[in-house]
Amino acid sequence: MKYSIKAPAKINLTLDTLKKRSDGYHEVEMIMTTVDLADRLDLADREDGKIVIDVSEGFVPNDHRNLAYQAADILRKHCNITRGVSIYITKRIPVSAGLAGGSSDAAATLKGLNQLWSLGLSLDELAELGAKIGSDIPFCIYGGTALATGRGEKIEKIASPPPCWVILAKPPIGVSTADIYNRLNVDEILHPNTSEMIRAIENQDFQSICAGLHNTLESVTLDLYPEVKKIKEQMLKFGADGVLMSGSGPTVFGLVQKESRLNRVYNGLKGFCSDVYAVRLLG
Ligand SMILES: C[C@@](CO)(OP(=O)(O)O)[C@H](O)COP(=O)(O)OP(=O)(O)OC[C@H]1O[C@@H](n2ccc(N)nc2=O)[C@H](O)[C@@H]1O
Ligand SMILES: Nc1ncnc2c1ncn2[C@@H]1O[C@H](COP(=O)(O)OP(=O)(O)O)[C@@H](O)[C@H]1O
C-alpha cells in the first residue's frame, strides 16, 4: 500500500517571546499561516519492519535525525505497529530557513501513516504526539492560520488572512533556532500586538496586517547576518506591502496584494538572491 501527501511551509505573521522558561524553552505567542510551497512525501508499506528514509537533497539526514523518521517511530510505538515504512521526501522547502520544513515533513508523516495504516487517530492526538518531537509540529498538523502559544505547541485556529501573494527570499545561510533563542534578551524586546493582528485578520484588513507584522527574533538574526537586513530593505524598495523575517530566519517574506506588483518584487529580489519563491497564502 502507498500514500502520498504534501507538507506545506509556514510563515510567522507575528512572533512574540514572553519569557524564558525553566525547561529551557521560551514562552511564545505566534500567529502562523501556511503557504503553498510544499515538500512531497511518498509513503510505502514495508514488510521487514524497518523505517527507511530517502531524501531528494543529499545533505538532509536520512536516519533517526530526520524528523519524519522520528514521527514514524513515535507513531508505531504509540499504536503498537510492527509494520515498516519507506518514506521518500522530495524537498522543495529550503532547509534551516525558518519555514518549518522538517516539522511539516514530520506532521505529514503522522497524518499520512494514520491513513496508510488506518489508525483512526484524531488531529488532536496526532498533534500531541508531534509535540513530543518539536514545538512547530502541532501547528503543521492542523495547517491553516492559528495562534500558537506555550512553547508553540498549543494551537487555536483563527480566521484566514485575505488572499495575497507571498515572496520568500532566503540568503545562502542556515540558522539554528536554538542559537537564535539563546542570544535573545527577553528584557529588551519590542513586542507585537497579537490581538490587534487577530482583529486585522478577522476584518480582512490587509493594510493593518502589513503594519502589524513583527517578529521578536528578527533583530537577533539581523545582527548576526546583515544580508538578511539587506533582503528586507530590497523587498520594501521593490514594492512589497509588508515585510518580515519568518521564525528564526533567515528567510524573509514579503506580502504583495496586487499581481501587477508581484513580478517587480520577484525579479528585483532574483537579481541578488538565488533562493526566491512567489507563492500564495494557503491559510
Ligand atoms: C522559531 C520557530 C517559530 O515558528 O520556528 P523555526 O524558525 O524553527 O521555523 C519555532 O518556535 C521553532 O520550533 P521548532 O523548530 O519546532 O523548535 P524545537 O525543535 O521545539 O526546539 C529547538 C530549540 O529551540 C529553542 N526553542 C524552541 C521553541 C521555543 N518556544 N523556545 C525555545 O527556546 C530551544 O532551545 C529548543 O531546544
Ligand atoms: N525532513 C527534514 N527536512 C529538513 N530538515 C530536517 C528534516 N529532518 C531533520 N532535519 C534537520 O532539521 C534542522 C532544521 O530544519 P528545518 O525544519 O528545515 O528548519 P526550520 O526549523 O528553520 O524551519 C536541519 O538541521 C535539518 O538537518
Automatic annotation (TrEMBL):
Residues forming the catalytic site: 10, 136
Entry's EC annotation: 2.7.1.148
Molecular-function annotations in GO: 4-(cytidine 5'-diphospho)-2-C-methyl-D-erythritol kinase activity; ATP binding
General function of this protein: Catalyzes the phosphorylation of the position 2 hydroxy group of 4-diphosphocytidyl-2C-methyl-D-erythritol.
Protein's name in the database: 4-diphosphocytidyl-2-C-methyl-D-erythritol kinase
Limits of the GHMP kinase N-terminal domain: 66-144
Pathway where it operates: Isoprenoid biosynthesis; isopentenyl diphosphate biosynthesis via DXP pathway; isopentenyl diphosphate from 1-deoxy-D-xylulose 5-phosphate: step 3/6
Chain positions recorded as ATP binding sites: 94-104
UniProt xrefs under InterPro entries: GHMP_kinase_C_dom (IPR013750), GHMP_kinase_C_sf (IPR036554), GHMP_kinase_N_dom (IPR006204), IspE (IPR004424), Ribosomal_Su5_D2-typ_SF (IPR020568), Ribsml_uS5_D2-typ_fold_subgr (IPR014721)
